[in-house]
Design a protein that fits this description.
CATH topology: Sulfite Oxidase, Chain A, domain 2
Largest sheet: 7 strands, mixed
Low-confidence stretches: 1-72
Bound molecules: the ligand Nc1nc2c(c(=O)[nH]1)N[C@H]1C(S)=C(S)[C@@H](COP(=O)(O)O)O[C@H]1N2, molybdenum atom
CATH superfamily: Oxidoreductase, molybdopterin-binding domain
CATH architecture: Alpha-Beta Complex
Distance between the termini: 26 Å
Strand content: 15-25%
Order of helices and strands: HHHHHHEEHEEHEEHEEEEHEEH
Number of domains: 1
Number of strands: 12
Mean pLDDT: 82
């Protein structure tokens, strides 16, 4: 199949960002951010940075206009890295932060297979090298009705897919998380079926918004956020964003997905953010902004990214395909 790849900008963000800004940020985050966070002190980046400012500094691809009401501030680094879902490290929100320290994200190999012309085992650097690293600020919405605004760094998934060259029969792409119960204590319990698996329709994967993330806040991904490589699809509930990916497989049939296996009538394959279709046990009409008080705010269709992705679902009954 032919996937239209948008013309890439020729310059990496590190080259067009004023050097002082870039170096200071990297330097600070790299050397002191973690230490300060570990000491229980807020790192400097906790200073709210408005997406617009970040965009100018880092020349990120403009995210969707998610509207005044939802144009929140960037969540500070410690929200993004200490309030997580990553059941491989436990089911509490601070478990991944507390228990992922022994996880070794390098060296790392991703096995690509199924219906594609370029299967094989790829080092993570080789896979990521198939596209252009970009910084992108996305609003993220968890199925549990909370949200954050996160500055990701990564490669458009469409770049990688076009290089892997799916065959015409391939309709879906399946992803698999690493299975390492020795380093991932949560995998020693049967809260989910391991390894965690997810999938996208190929046209969803090739959408401009889909990102294979390698970092956040301009730094490599912390273990708790899915190092060294994880999926980011901001118009879908967070559980589609599978972490620590070791497998990418092109398939003709819709692949199984972890939360759908676990509770099929609660979690569908598509998992598009939809304020009009409630979870069987709670409403999806509103959400809590993490770190911004107790108020609830309206959830937007496709999490505010309808303009970018609405066409993918034209004619589909989104109650049936939840
Ligand atoms: N392998 C794996 N990937 C996962 C999960 C998980 O438990 N295991 N949790 C998902 C859920 S429910 C959410 S909301 C996001 C959270 O990503 P973040 O912690 O980087 O914000 O990761 C998703 N990816
Ligand atoms: Mo989630």
């Amino acid at each position: 199949m032919v996937i239209r790849v948008r013309r890439k900008s020729d310059v990496a963000s590190s080259e067009i960002t004023p050097k002082e800004v870039y170096v200071n940020r990297r330097d600070f985050l790299g050397r002191t951010g973690g230490a300060l966070a570990a000491a229980g002190m807020a790192p400097l980046v906790a200073e709210p940075v408005r997406p617009r400012e970040w965009r100018q500094e880092a020349h990120v691809a403009p995210p969707a206009d998610y509207g005044e009401e939802l144009r929140g501030e960037l969540n500070p680094y410690d929200d993004v890295t200490e309030y997580n879902n990553f059941y491989e490290f436990g089911t509490e929100k601070d478990d991944p932060y507390k228990h992922s320290g022994d996880f070794e994200p390098r060296p790392w190999t991703v096995e690509v297979g199924g219906l594609c012309h370029n299967p094989g085992k790829y080092g993570v650097e080789d896979l990521v090298g198939m596209g252009e690293i970009q910084d992108r600020i996305y609003r993220m919405r968890c199925v549990e009705a909370w949200s954050m605004v996160i500055p990701w760094r990564g490669v458009p998934l469409r770049n990688i897919i076009s290089r892997l060259a799916p065959m015409t029969d391939a309709k879906f792409v399946a992803f698999e998380t690493v299975y390492r119960p020795q380093q991932m204590p949560g995998q020693q319990r049967n809260v989910l079926q391991w390894p965690y698996v997810e999938g996208l329709r190929i046209d969803e994967a090739a959408n401009e918004l889909s990102l294979l993330a390698t970092g956040l806040y301009g730094e490599d991904l912390p273990n708790q956020n899915g190092a060294p490589l994880r999926l980011v699809t901001p118009w879908k509930y967070g559980f589609k964003g599978i972490k620590s990916i070791v497998g990418i497989t092109f398939t003709e049939e819709m692949p199984p997905t972890s939360w759908n296996i676990s509770a099929p009538h609660e979690y569908g394959f598509y998992a598009n953010v939809n304020p009009n279709v409630d979870h069987p046990r709670w409403s999806q009409a509103r959400e809590r902004y993490i770190g911004k008080g107790l108020g609830r705010h309206p959830t937007l269709m496709f999490n505010g990214y309808e303009e970018e992705v609405g066409h993918l679902y034209a004619g589909m009954d989104l109650r049936e395909w939840y």
